[in-house]
Write a structure and sequence with these properties.
mainly beta, five-stranded mixed β-sheet, 7% helix
Length: 655
């Protein structure tokens, strides 16, 4: 076989994948019968969801989101594959970290590599080196690092009680969010300071992870509100394959504040965070650390009933020493947008400018980046118009022009069509283009005489999507989407033939496709019992272009399971007693020996949380995680460790 014909296909398992996909539809298919049974299946002591302030199925379907169009809209009529993780869902799952909270999203692959690192991605490309196509935002601040085009999840320890919701969009978002929003966007938004008044204390003590958090919020005169918080955490050691401790645990703290002000048509937000953590024995290089901080300001003015201007600026500074690398990153970012309605047109337009300065060096020779320090400037302008063709038909057209120091100008257009079949039924379709800029490592990696820098360009995607979202009854809702992603100029590691030694350079000579289905639904079985189910089936086909000599052997394509499914059950057994059960099922992650992926066996895991509200101010809960196996591997990297069974108790005080 000639090198140009090399390809990698994801192994198909149609029967097993179909079984798990069919399970996702159970909630929706059974909704009518369940609604009827709910009239006779009651528990006298159980309160209703409405009495406890929880959202009904109809209210969940009308949650307001901003990630799809950069303006508030009901999720029920958003022309995209988007899942919302609510504050209640995070609490009910017993999550202690953002990555663990993201396990709730059925359209995300979440794999823990070791105590420090996760691989989190949408629609494929799992792996620490390859999970580089997901843009993550925290209150409008991008935490996507230009160093390796991923996210250092250990750097973000927001107080989870202060999160309003997490919007998880699978599929391109480049028109509004820019380069690197290729396979999805995770948009984490925190609650207004007006909504977090008074004290809060939460302490969790566990066999693996432990946390303690304090927060206090207060009014600031007649027009403002503020809060301060501090959290300290310890992440325990994972296990090696034989059961011995991997000695990879770490600990640290984070503190911050937020203030919100409202004066007539103007609102202001100012917030910031500081953090410091110690990382033990990172990849055998001895103790490391991560420290830094950020500050963000946002001004919004309502110009009229259908016109709003928003300006935001932030500064971010991070310095870390881990994985044998010392790196420092400083980011200055400013952006502005104007949203208005004119006749049948709902327009949002704006632009932004970002400056990043970094410093990178290895803890052992040779040094791998040249130059060791670099400034990168990124500018953008965008416009998107949602056109009401008919009262039930909305066409959205948009485009962004982004410039950067590596690949100069990039265009990311999209077209979306949404059709409201009825008040409860919605169909949508989309065609989008997205790109990923090369990272510092991909562009400037060099070893004299062996690796030549500066040749990689942007990776490109054209995505085709169709979806359905609807409320089948007042007790059941379903969302499903099909996608086909066509990638070009994906990263490869090439060598130049005919020269000794043959120099290697990072190029763009891989292409291919991914396709699959994502589905999820909610079923209110009774007033006190809700079920949520979801998951995805994924297929991949990648190949090298003629003349390619990819010595990394498809490493950039990642190693993904063929399917995964997630199920959650939330029960209000009494006014003061909750029971939450969770289960996730993952298919095998393949072994790709030439790429360094050792694979991971299929696994099924379960969690349980029981919470007892002792009184109006005090809640005691116990949570067990990964209960079905003594330990299990999730990621495919050779350096991965295994996640052990764990448990913790939490005491929450909210006077």
């Amino acid at each position: 076989m000639e090198q140009s014909q090399l390809r990698v296909r994801f192994p198909t398992r149609p029967r097993r994948g179909a079984v798990y996909l069919a399970a996702l539809a159970v909630a929706g298919v059974a909704a009518g019968g369940a609604e009827a049974r709910a009239e006779t299946f009651e528990l006298a002591a159980a309160p209703t969801a409405r009495a406890l302030g929880e959202l009904t199925i109809d209210e969940l379907s009308e949650i307001s989101i901003t990630s799809v169009s950069k303006r508030p809209e009901a999720i029920s009529h958003a022309a995209s594959s988007v899942y919302v993780i609510t504050n209640d869902a995070i609490r009910q799952a017993g999550a202690l970290t953002i990555p663990e909270a993201l396990r709730l999203a059925p359209n995300l692959e979440v794999m823990r590599i070791d105590a420090l690192d996760y691989s989190i991605t949408a629609r494929g490309f799992a792996g620490f080196e390859s999970a580089n196509k997901l843009l993550v935002l925290v209150d409008g601040r991008s935490v996507y690092t230009p160093l390796f085009s991923g996210v250092d999840w250990d750097q973000h320890h927001i107080l989870l009680d202060d999160i309003a919701q997490i919007e998880v969009v699978s599929g391109p978002g480049g028109t509004l969010w820019g380069a690197n929003a290729v396979n999805g966007v995770v948009n984490i938004t925190s609650r207004s300071a007006f909504d977090t008044q008074g004290p809060l204390a939460v302490a969790s003590l566990g066999t693996l992870d432990s946390d303690i958090s304090l927060r206090y919020g207060a009014q600031l005169g007649d027009s403002g509100a503020g809060r301060v918080y501090a959290t300290a955490f310890k992440r325990g050691d994972l296990d090696e394959a034989g059961g011995a401790s991997a000695d990879d645990g770490w600990d640290g703290w984070q503190a911050g504040f937020r203030t919100d002000w409202a004066y007539g048509s103007d609102t202001f937000t100012v917030q910031g965070d500081l953090q410091d953590a110690t990382i033990d024995e990172s990849l055998g290089f001895g103790d490391g650390y991560v420290r830094g901080g950020n500050a963000l300001g946002r001004w919004t003015r309502r110009l009229g009933p259908a016109s709003t201007v928003e300006v935001q600026a932030y500064y971010d500074h991070i310095e870390r020493e881990a994985r044998g690398i010392h790196d420092k990153l400083r980011v200055w970012d400013v952006e502005a947008q104007h949203a208005f309605t004119l006749g049948r047109h709902a327009v949002v337009w704006g632009g932004g400018y970002r400056i990043t300065r970094d410093e990178f060096r290895t803890l052992a020779e040779p040094q791998l980046l040249s130059p060791p320090r670099r400034r990168v400037d990124i500018g953008n302008v965008f416009v998107q118009d949602a056109i009401a063709l008919r009262p039930d038909l909305l066409l959205t057209l948009g485009v962004k022009l982004e410039t950067n120091d590596y690949t100069r100008s990039e265009w990311t257009p999209n077209a979306r069509l949404g059709w409201s079949l009825s008040e409860r039924q919605f169909l949508w379709a989309a065609v989008s283009r997205a790109i990923r800029n090369p990272s510092r490592i991909e562009r400037d990696f060099t070893i004299a005489g062996f690796v030549q820098p500066g040749q990689m360009g942007s990776e490109k995607l054209v995505a085709y999507e169709v979806g359905y979202r609807g409320r089948l009854t007042s007790a059941a809702s379903v969302s499903a989407s099909l996608y086909y992603h066509d990638y070009d100029e994906l990263r490869t590691n090439e060598f130049i033939p005919g020269r000794q030694p043959a120099p290697v350079f990072v190029g763009n000579t891989m292409e291919g496709e991914t396709w699959g289905v994502e589905a999820w639904g909610d079923l209110q079985v009774t007033d006190w019992w809700r079920l949520s189910a979801g998951g995805a089936v994924l297929r991949k086909d990648f190949r090298l272009k003629p003349g390619s000599r990819d010595v990394a052997r498809f490493e950039a394509a990642g190693a993904d399971p063929g399917y995964w499914a997630k199920l959650r059950s939330h029960m209000r057994l009494a006014d003061n007693l909750e029971l939450d059960l969770g289960m996730r099922v993952y298919d095998d992650v393949p072994t790709l020996a030439a790429s360094g992926y050792v694979g991971a066996s299929a696994y099924t895991e379960a969690s349980v949380r029981i919470a007892w509200r002792i009184n109006e101010q005090l809640e005691l809960s116990a949570t067990g995680l990964d209960l079905l196996n003594a330990r299990h591997a999730e990621a495919s990297e050779a350096r991965r460790n295994e996640v052990p069974r764990s448990a913790f108790v939490t005491l929450r005080w909210t006077p």
